[in-house]
Amino acid sequence: MFKRFRRLRSNENIRALVRENTLNINDLIYPLFVVDGKNIKKEISSMPDVFQMSLDEILKECEELVLLGIKAIILFGVLEDDKKDSCGSDALSDDGLIARSLRKIKAKFPNLIIITDLCFCEYTDHGHCGIINPKTTSVDNDLTLEISAKQALIHAKNGADMIAPSGMMDGIVYTLRKTLDENGYENLPIMAYSTKFASAYYGPFREVAKSTPSYGDRKTYQMDFANAKEALCESLEDEKQGADILMVKPALAYLDVVKELSQNSKLPICVYNVSGEYALLKAGQKAGVVDYEKMIFETMLAFKRAGAKLIITYHAKEIAKILSQK
Q: Residue 263 burial (CB < 10 Å; 0-12/13-18/19+)?
C-alpha cells in the first residue's frame, strides 16, 4: 500500500483548496527613491522600471500605488554629492529631503503606510552608514547611534508610520525604541534590518541610491554571508531590544535563514527582495530565456513558504496588476 499524493493535485480547484501558502497584495511593500528637483523621473539602467523621482513624480507614483491596492512604501532619499557631508546633515534636518517628502506624501495620502529607511549612506560624502572614526576609518558604532536617534525623531515628527534602521549598528533598536518612547512615539513600530548580509546582490541599488562607499566596504558592520547561527542571534537580539518586525536581506539566497528565524521567533518576518535579484529576473525577461511572470510568483511563494509575512519588492506593481486580473 502506498500514499496517492496525486489525489490532491488532480485539478486546479483541488490544488487551490489545499494550497499551504498564497501571495496577497497586502504582503507587498514598494521601494521609492526621492530626489530634489521637479519633473524628474530617471530610470535606473541596471533596474528597468525603477526610477529616481522628484517629489512631484513621487506623488503621482503614490496615486498609482493606491489605485493598485498597494498599502505600503519604503522611502529612500537620494542626495546630490554637493549636499552630502561627513555626518549626513540633511537626514538630521526638518528641512531635509526625507522630512519634506514625508509631509507632502502624508498630506495627500494619509492612509498610505510610509516606512522610512533610517541610515546615513545616502547622505554622507564617504558613503558609509554613520560617523567615521578617523583612527580606524570604520564607522563609530556609538556615535552613529546618537545621530540615528536624532534621525528617528525627524522621521517620527514628520509623519513616518514605521521606521526601518538599515545600518546594522549594535544597539540600534534599543536606542531608537528608547528615544521614540521618551518623546511620545511609543506606538511607532520599528522594522529591524535584523539580519542584513554584506552581499553582492546590492549592486544595482547603489546606482539608484548613489550610496557606494568612497573607500572600503561594509563588512565590519553588515553580516558575513557564511554565518547562519550569527544571523539568528542578530535577529533575536533585535527582538529583545524591542523590534516589532524582523527582516532578512537579501531574500532569495538566504531562505534557510528566513526559515530558521521563523521557527525561533513569533514576530512577523519581512524579506527584502533586493535589487540584484530583481535585475537578474529582468535580464532573463529581456533575453527571453524565462517565463518572467511565473518566475516572479514562484520566487514570492518561496519567500512565503520559508516563513516571510511581508515582502519588500520592486516587482510589487507588476504583481498587483497580475493579481487584479485573477
A: exposed
Closest CA to 204 of 138, 269, 273, 258: 273
| CATH code for position 41 | 3.20.20.70
121 marked ligand binding residue? yes
Q: Taking the model in full, what pTM does it have?
A: 0.94
Question: Whole-angstrom Cα distance, residue 171 to residue 101?
Answer: 28
d(CA 190, CA 238): 10
Per-residue pLDDT of 16-33, as tens digits, reads 999 999 999 999 999 999
- The answer to whether 34 and 77 have CB atoms below 8 angstroms apart is yes
Q: Is 196 a known active-site residue?
A: yes
- How many domains is the chain partitioned into structurally? 1
Which residue in the list 84, 104, 210, 249 is annotated as catalytic? 249
Domain span including residue 165: 21-325
Q: What is the H or E stretch that residue 106 is in?
A: helix 97-108
Is 234 annotated to bind ligand? yes
Question: What are the pLDDT digits (tens) for 222-257?
Answer: 889 999 999 999 999 999 999 999 999 999 999 999
41 is catalytic: no
Ligand-binding site membership of 270 (annotated) = no
